[in-house]
Amino acid sequence: MAWLTxxxxxxSKYLGLFTDVWLTLVFGFLIVPAVFGVPFGIHKYYIxxxxxxxxxxxxxxxxxxxEKNNQLYKHYTSGIIVKVPDSTLKQEIQDLRCxxxxxxxxxxxxxxDVFVFCxxxxxxxxxxxxxKRFSAQKLENWNLLTRSNHNFRYINLQLLALWxxxxxxxxxxxxPFRVTVAVTGIFLFxxxxxxxxxxxxxxxxxxxxxxxxGYRLCVRSLTGIVTYHNxxxxxxxxxxxxxxxxxxxxxxxxxNDHCYSLVGQLHGGLLGLIQxxxxxxxxxxxxxxxxxxxxxxxxKRLRDHVADENxxxxxxxxxxxxVNNTSVMMFRKGxxxxxxxxxxxAIKYDPRFADAFWNSSKFGLMGYLLRMMSSWAxxxxxxYLPPMNRKEGEDAMQxxxxxxxxxxxxxxxxxxxxxxxxxxxxxxxxxxEEQQQLYSKILLGDHEYQNHPES
Amino acid sequence: MGSRAxxxxxxxxxxxxxxxxxxxxxxxTRLYSRFTSLDKGENGTLSREDFQRIPELAINPLGDxxxxxxxxxxxxxxxxxxxxxxxxxxxxxxxxxxxxxxxxTEPLNSRTNKLLFAFRLYDLDRDDKISRDELLQVxxxxxxxxxxxxxxxxxxxxxxxxxxxxxxxxxxxQEFMKVLEKVDVEQKMSIRFLx
Lengths: 455, 195
Hints:
- The complex is a heterodimer.
- Chain A has a domain of 274 residues: Glycerol-3-phosphate (1)-acyltransferase, CATH 3.40.1130.
- Helices cover 50% and strands 9% of the residues of chain A.
- Chain A contains 14 helices and 9 strands.
- In chain A, the strands form 2 sheets. A 7-stranded mixed beta sheet of chain A has the order 1-8-7-2-5-3-4, with helices on both faces. In chain A, strands 6-9 form a two-stranded parallel sheet.
- In chain A, helix 1 packs across helix 6 and helix 5 packs antiparallel against helix 6.
- Chain A starts with a helix and ends with a helix.
- Chain B folds into 2 domains: 78 residues, Recoverin, domain 1 (Orthogonal Bundle); 82 residues, Orthogonal Bundle (Recoverin, domain 1).
């Protein structure tokens, strides 16, 4: 079978050469600079090129839509209904009764009162503030990813060619590079973190370096282009850092710039391995599943950690779950009851390059990472806000809302009072009872209501 | 970007809905996008749970009744046409003048039909009369546990007394319309849709 050995030889030679070149490129240009913190440099041009391509594709789609005499549906510039500013139930009922001369403004029931509830309900059915936060943000321009365009159909040959080219680049070039960097990074991190943990003296200094290196490699592996603003407000060791939550990558993005102690549940598998390695060189707080439910235990450990000056600030995401980065939802008050300084941070992802939101009901962590690694890039901005403390006479919930408003204002996000947990659970009955109470007051008049508030 | 909407919703269907409800092409595609985002089961119909998932609707005291209005008698699923038919009641009346082809029958968003929608929120058994019990049910939904049975009963009695002209201790649709004849129904039961 001599004739078979020749092509096999050639093939293995070329494969070997290819692997050598590839590994040199990856190590030389990605891993080594990342290990030592040297920037790579071509990111600006990469983004500029991508943006001009996206503008061109949208233009093509608009032209095509014009041919058919339809308008291209832009989710942000066009809404469905005119949004009126919020008014209270009392105001609306009064408006209704005033507009009809025959209805009385006195405390009594009018058959027409149902109109107010009716209209509000219909407005919410057509467009509400909450449900749209739990699915990916819709884009104005198409970014050549079919996942962000539900309506992929043939527009013209150039667009199709461009899309195919995009797929080849993303899955053929970018994805393998990124996976290599990620795997190397995690491996290095686990090994070095364990080693550093064994050295008694210069533990903190070395462990910080190892942690930062690990996060840098992770960010590079996702082609993360992060811009940090207001670095003078970086969290110090005496407090906690809170930020809005969009994705598990949030932690990596923040930890790329400063060392934090993380809080969370201890997992199994690869993630658990990484968590255990982290703890060997730096004090993170991982809880067993049963312990997580015990709020007092968690609060005590947090308090002890914050009191120790040598330990890094704790990183907490008070929303409790991921939302789609267009809004900030209710902050859980637990972290604000500890009584230490809070360092808020706002994170805003640019949706044109990747959809960073982790929709845990749609895909698991591995599927999510695959999508992230096959997107164009993860471009985001992080703003460090000035530290905040609880004011006199302010309770934990009010403090939490104040911090939330500051983060929303900085990140250009909508500030909502709704609980992000509504992603999975039903809304509590107390809210409906509030509405019923308000209406009862209108029926009876405030004075009489005080005297008869029972069933 | 055309959403899932424009490909899955055929042009003929859009034309049918346009004729029946008076909504414009772009309004229909936008509302279809909303319909599909509410349809978590992705089977082309909405169930009551799909509506209940909207928190602001779930806390509305009359939320359940209004959700009911979308579903035809005895059914648990509503398709897009049914959804649009119910929404059409809330189109502003002045929008009708913009229509090039007005429907042959009375439009869904006429003053009478808007009042009928509100009447049906009370009249659960569809016998064209609001009985004392039906009125009490709606009142109880709106006030919760905050008012006693006696007080609520007297409120209901007084309302029926004021509206009832033929002495049958129920409120018919005609009597209902009479009570509300001066109310600006056109404005209060309309939602301003963007074009």
